[in-house]
């Protein structure tokens, strides 16, 4: 009885072991005849990346088959690894797909992922069963994958940094130009060949404003001095009156010279004092005019009054004409003489 129980237990354990072993063989793809209809696709890779026969193949994360073989193809220097995938007949793979190898972090076999754009499933274009043209894929290590993703994410940031660098360079140049404009500069520097900058221009403008303020101050002082303006106006009017009187006197002597023939010497003696007085008057008028035009004080501002200035100019012109007439008359008398007729 005990031997029967021992044999029964031994047989049961052996059966369980055999079933487990068969399941392991099926998991590693050794019993392909039990897996139904399948077709193959060849994937060309630059590196196996941990793939081996029996590794799972997924399409957008869904298992669709296993790898039958992973072998070297040394004739292809760009993709020297060939992986043949056994795909379930009911799972069609759309064109195009991007093979990727995902290695396990805790060890074990890697997974071959086929990534397709969602729109590709509706395109109606699929890989044909047992297609001989390999699907090209690239294996990248985790560091390379992270670097690629970082490069993709950082592209916009790098573009922004490049724009900011250009912006910073531009405003650095602007700041440098502003510093040049605001550097201390003297007239001697400009005479030496330097271009005038903003600081010197402001200094010149301030100097011009100061001169304008001084001129306005002097003008206000003159306009506020009523006595000085009245005295100067009176002097101009008196000079004008004197010139008018002298002109009338010369006209009388001219008329007398035309109608009388008197002794030339006596007439010259009488006319000479008048001419001297007129010359002194003209000299005085010229002196006053010179002081008015060349002075730096408030008299110069008075000439801005057109009435007084025109009166003074007209009087000086008439006096000058009268003196010319007297001189001509005296020369005529000296040369020809005059006879008095009664």
Write a structural description.
There is one protein chain. Helix 5 runs parallel beside helix 8 and helix 6 runs antiparallel to helix 8. It is built from 8 helices and 7 strands; from the N terminus they run αβββββββααααααα. 58% of the residues lie in helices and 15% in strands. 13% of the residues are buried. Strands 5-6-2-3-4-1-7 form a 7-stranded mixed beta sheet, with no helix packed on it.
Element layout with pairings:
Blueprint: H1 2-27, E1 38-45, E2 56-59, E3 62-72, E4 81-88, E5 97-102, E6 111-116, E7 131-137, H2 142-181, H3 187-191, H4 198-224, H5 226-259, H6 264-294, H7 298-302, H8 306-336
Parallel strand pairs: 1-7, 2-6
Antiparallel strand pairs: 1-4, 2-3, 3-4, 5-6
Helix pairs in contact: 5-6, 5-8, 6-8
CATH architecture of the domain at 224-336: Up-down Bundle
CATH class of the domain at 224-336: Mainly Alpha
Radius of gyration: 61 Å
**Strand portion:** 5-15%
Intertermini distance:
205 Å
What is the arithmetic mean of pLDDT? 74
Identify the notable features of this structure and list them briefly.
342 residues; alpha/beta; Methane Monooxygenase Hydroxylase, Chain G, domain 1; seven-stranded mixed beta sheet; rod-shaped
């Amino acid at each position: 009885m005990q031997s029967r129980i021992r044999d029964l237990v031994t047989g049961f354990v052996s059966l369980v072991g055999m079933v487990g072993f068969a399941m392991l063989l099926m998991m590693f793809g050794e019993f392909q005849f039990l897996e139904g209809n399948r077709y193959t696709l060849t994937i060309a890779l630059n590196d196996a990346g941990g793939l081996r026969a029996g590794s799972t193949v997924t399409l957008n994360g869904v298992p669709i088959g296993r790898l039958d073989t992973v072998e070297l193809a040394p004739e292809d220097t760009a993709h020297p690894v060939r992986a043949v995938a056994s795909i379930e007949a009911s799972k069609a793979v759309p064109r195009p797909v991007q093979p990727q190898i995902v290695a396990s972090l805790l060890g074990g076999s890697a997974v071959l992922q086929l990534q397709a754009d969602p729109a590709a499933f509706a395109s109606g274009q699929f890989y044909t069963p047992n297609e001989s043209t390999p699907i090209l894929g690239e294996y990248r290590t985790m560091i390379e994958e992270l670097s690629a993703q970082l490069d993709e994410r950082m592209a916009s940031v790098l573009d922004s940094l490049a724009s900011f660098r250009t912006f910073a360079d531009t405003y650095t140049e602007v700041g440098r130009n502003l510093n040049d404009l605001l550097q201390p500069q003297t007239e001697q520097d400009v005479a030496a060949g330097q271009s005038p900058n903003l600081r010197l221009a402001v200094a010149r403008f301030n100097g011009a404003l100061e001169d304008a303020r001084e001129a306005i101050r002097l003008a206000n002082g003159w306009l506020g001095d009523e006595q000085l303006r009245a005295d100067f106006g009176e002097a101009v009017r008196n000079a004008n009156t004197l010139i008018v009187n002298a002109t009338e006197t010369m006209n009388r002597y001219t008329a007398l010279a035309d109608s009388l023939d008197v002794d030339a010497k006596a007439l010259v003696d009488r006319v000479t004092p008048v001419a001297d007085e007129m010359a002194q008057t003209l000299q005085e008028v010229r002196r006053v005019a010179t002081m008015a035009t060349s002075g730096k004080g408030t008299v110069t501002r008075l000439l801005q009054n057109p009435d007084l200035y025109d009166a003074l100019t007209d009087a000086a012109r008439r006096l000058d004409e009268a003196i010319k007439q007297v001189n001509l008359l005296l020369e005529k008398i000296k040369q020809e003489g005059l006879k008095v007729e009664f």
